[in-house]
Structures are given as structure tokens and as C-alpha cells.
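From: lab user (bench 3)
To: helpdesk
Subject: output format question, protein + iron/sulfur cluster

Hello, I'm new to running complex predictions and I'm not sure whether the block I got back is the full result or only part of it. Here's what I submitted:
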Amino acid sequence: MSKNNYKVVWLSAGISSFIAGYLVKDTVDEWIYIDVKDQHPDSMRFVHDCEKILGEKVTILRSQEYEDVEDVCRKTGFISTPYGAPCTGVLKKKVRKNWEQEFYKREGHMNLCYVWGFDEKESKRADNMRLNFPEFTHEFPLIDKGLKKEDAHALSISLGLKRPIMYDLGFPNNNCIGCVKAGMYTWNLVRKNFPEVFEKRAKMERDLGHSCMNGLFLDELDPNAGRRGEVIPECSIFCFMAEQELNGEQPIFQVVKTA
Ligand code: SF4
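Helpdesk reply: Thanks, we reran it on our side. This is the complete output you should expect:
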């Protein structure tokens, strides 16, 4: 690793980002995970298992301003916007930006290189990442090696790494339990596996007068609605900003401090 380059793997507590980093592990300077209270507790088990395999510590970051997803939604007054979900913006993007500020203060001359778990089917996303964030260098080891998500899962099994339990429960990714970006099928999985979270989100929707699913409130959701295979974007530390920048807009919500 050149001393002008600092390589970071942003772990998402999903298989792809870990395996992508693992493929270039000898050149990685730091592994970072941004923890959100709404993630299943098994996510932290997964991160610690990654540490054991790597023989290295993962830096754990958390928002110092907001407690959890509901705290963000209630204080901003929004659940989701056409430009992204405020919770991604403050619980992940802002935390990542704070880390970068500290990094540049400390190591101003260094270039940051980020490693991503996009697979060979996601080369368009990789192009967009390079286009939208030219201030960083980006690496996509799965794409470079022509690997699919399934290959990454197979590799994790061979390493003895047990995937986060959310996948075993049928969730399409390891986003927060009750992710505001979820669709009907996934919300019904939340209702079945985590009824208390479902109830809390349903109440929050009514209190705020906004719904997670485009006008369909959770307390109206047919328990049989939705179908397996629903595609839900994995919550990324960059997706919120990318959505905004692609739309050429500033965030449309304002943080309203409550007592
Ligand atoms: S996973 Fe979903 S609920 Fe959690 S921060 Fe990301 S968008 Fe918000």
C-alpha cells in the first residue's frame, strides 16, 4: 500500500462487502462498520466473526445525534422522500462524512480508496459510484474477479462465516429490522418475525401522516400481499447522497428539534 493511499472497506454486515474486502485484505488499512440500533443484534455477531477471520479489529461507528430510525423519522418529520430516506442520510451518510473529516484533519495528504461489494451484475452501480464520488478511488473486487453474490456466499461458507440471521429468516438483505424502504412482502416478514417492530412503525406512520410504501399504510397491509424475491436496495452509506446528487437536489427535509 502506497503511503499516499488509505484503503477502507465499509462493511455493511452483509456477505458481499466482507468478501469483497477479504479478496484484497492484504492491502486494506481499515475495516469500518456503521452500526444502527435497528439492525438485528446478529449483525454484530457477524462483524465479530469477520474480525476473527481477518485477525483484525473492525472500527465500529454510530451516530451521536440520533438514537435510531424512529428518532430520525420523528425529528425530521419524514419517513422517506423521493430523494432517499432521512435515516440513511443521518445514521450512515453523516457518520461516514464525520469520519472522513477526522481522517483528512489527521492525514490531509492521503487519498481515500473505498472497497465495495458490488457484484458482476452491478457494474452500472459501480460506474455511478465512480462518477458521483470522484474524490475517492473505488475498488470492486467481486466485479474485477467476475464473481456473483452467490459466489460470495459460497466463499463465506468455505471460510466458516455464518451469514447474518436475517437472510435465514427470508429477508433479501440485512437492512434494519423494519427498513423504511421495504416492500409489501418484506413488511409481512417483519410482521411475522418482529411483530413489535411492525406495530411501532405502523403507529409512527399514523403519527407522522406519511407511509413507508407510497400511500399504503402498514395497518392497511394485506397479510398475504407481496411476493418472494422482492428487490429492496441494500442500505448503503452512499445511496442517500447518490440519490440526491443524481436528482440534482438538496435534501427536502429539515431537522426539527423536538423537546
Ligand atoms: S436500512 Fe432502511 S431503515 Fe435502516 S437506515 Fe437504511 S434506509 Fe433507514
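A quick orientation on your result: The pocket of iron/sulfur cluster is lined by residues 36, 38, 69, 85, 87-88, 91, 175-176, 179-181, 235 (CB under 6 Å). Let us know if anything else is unclear.
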